[in-house]
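User: Can you recover a sequence for this backbone? Please restate the input before giving your answer.

Assistant: Of course. Working from this structure:
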């Protein structure tokens, strides 16, 4: 007999994540924090109302694909060209330093010479720390009038490159999860994948230009682009051994600037994601978070990981900014602006769990790191930003005649 309990679980998840998301926003926290808390309360660490099922796993995976596709669509390649070399240097150093810090943190607490995946597990914790989510930073800079200044532009450009580098590193590390895999095979697959992406990007540019002229109906193009995202996600996983979210992310990048429907597409896809799949994903992270096994060692590891997450971005991105000619004050702001991890780190952590590179016991430290870095970023920015600085943009005052 078919069980319909998944419908009740889905209703509980949607209502609770919405409620706690609204409560989070009322106290000036991002809605994702409320969704995580809702998942923890619903799962085994809370009241146990919802258990992880195959349906929730698949819905969560679709939610991740939606989020990464939207992240690709939101990528502004033209803005990236303006920031150019400076953003690239900031992003590269801002990835290398957290990667190394995360690896050191893992090895200090969980080093196991007998585990053939020990090196990869340590590096994967570093990959989680490389992630950057600047949505909170962007809103803070906009409120302060500094989004369009040289600091805001550098942060936005570096965040885009940071995400691309993080996806590439994630792809490389997950490619080595099979002990029998040869390094040459992994890099060959990755190289072929990017060649494939370049060819697909060129072909889709021509196809969608033609569709825009012939079809004229935006709804049909929206359906086709969503199908394109799923197909590219499948091909990445099935034929190249690369995470499906990588395919989804580059599907969004391919479509982000090739014709004038990006905002329409993002709006339509965001509705589907926001209404169903994204809440399930964030709740599932909370459900997986086992607080019952939160030992004293795990608490210490959590605090060390949090400190490494904050310091590594400030030092790495700040150093990159200084090398590119920014003064000390602006370099500090750029480093602080890159501290927030948000949903990106959660997505990476979930892919690591699926690949066997991160144990479920390490989800609480990751969730704690995501929540704290997301909360402190706007606070630190408002403390350290100087309204009298030359890069500060005074709001325009309109005088009525």
């Amino acid at each position: 007999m078919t069980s319909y309990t998944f419908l009740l679980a889905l209703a509980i998840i949607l209502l609770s994540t919405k409620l706690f998301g609204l409560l989070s926003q009322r106290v000036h926290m991002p809605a994702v924090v409320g969704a995580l808390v809702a998942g923890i309360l619903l799962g085994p660490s809370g009241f146990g109302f919802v258990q992880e099922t195959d349906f929730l796993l698949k819905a969560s995976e679709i939610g991740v694909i939606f989020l990464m596709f939207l992240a690709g669509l939101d990528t502004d390649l033209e803005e990236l060209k303006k920031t150019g070399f400076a953003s690239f240097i900031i992003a590269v150093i801002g990835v290398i330093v957290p990667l190394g810090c995360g690896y050191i943190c893992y090895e200090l607490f969980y080093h196991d010479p007998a585990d053939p995946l020990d090196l990869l597990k340590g590096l994967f914790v570093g990959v989680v720390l490389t992630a950057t989510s600047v949505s909170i930073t962007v809103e803070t800079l906009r409120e302060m009038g500094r989004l369009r200044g040289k600091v805001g532009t550098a942060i936005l450009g570096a965040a885009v490159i940071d995400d691309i580098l993080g996806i590439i590193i994630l792809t490389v590390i997950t490619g080595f999860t099979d002990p029998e895999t040869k390094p040459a095979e992994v890099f060959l697959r990755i190289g072929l994948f990017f060649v494939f992406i370049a060819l697909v990007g060129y072909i889709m540019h021509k196809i969608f230009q033609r569709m825009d002229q012939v079809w004229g109906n935006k709804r049909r193009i929206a359906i086709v682009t969503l199908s394109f995202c799923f197909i590219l996600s499948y091909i990445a996983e099935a034929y190249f051994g690369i995470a499906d979210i990588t395919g989804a992310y580059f599907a969004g990048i391919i479509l982000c600037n090739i014709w004038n429907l990006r905002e329409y597409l993002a709006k339509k896809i965001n509705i589907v994601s926001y209404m169903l799949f994204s809440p399930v994903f964030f709740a599932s992270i909370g459900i997986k978070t086992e607080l019952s096994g939160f030992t004293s060692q795990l608490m210490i590891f959590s605090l060390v990981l949090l400190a490494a997450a904050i310091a590594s971005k400030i030092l790495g991105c700040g150093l990159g900014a200084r090398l590119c000619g920014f003064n000390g004050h602006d370099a500090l702001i750029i480093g602080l602006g890159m501290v927030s991890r948000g949903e990106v780190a959660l997505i990476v952590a979930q892919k690591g769990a699926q690949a066997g590179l991160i144990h479920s016991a390490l989800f609480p430290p990751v969730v704690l790191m995501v929540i704290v870095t997301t909360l402190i970023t706007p606070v630190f920015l408002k403390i350290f930003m100087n309204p009298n600085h030359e890069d500060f943009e005074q709001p325009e005052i309109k005088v009525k005649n």
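That completes the design. Residues 388-401 have pLDDT under 50 and may be disordered.
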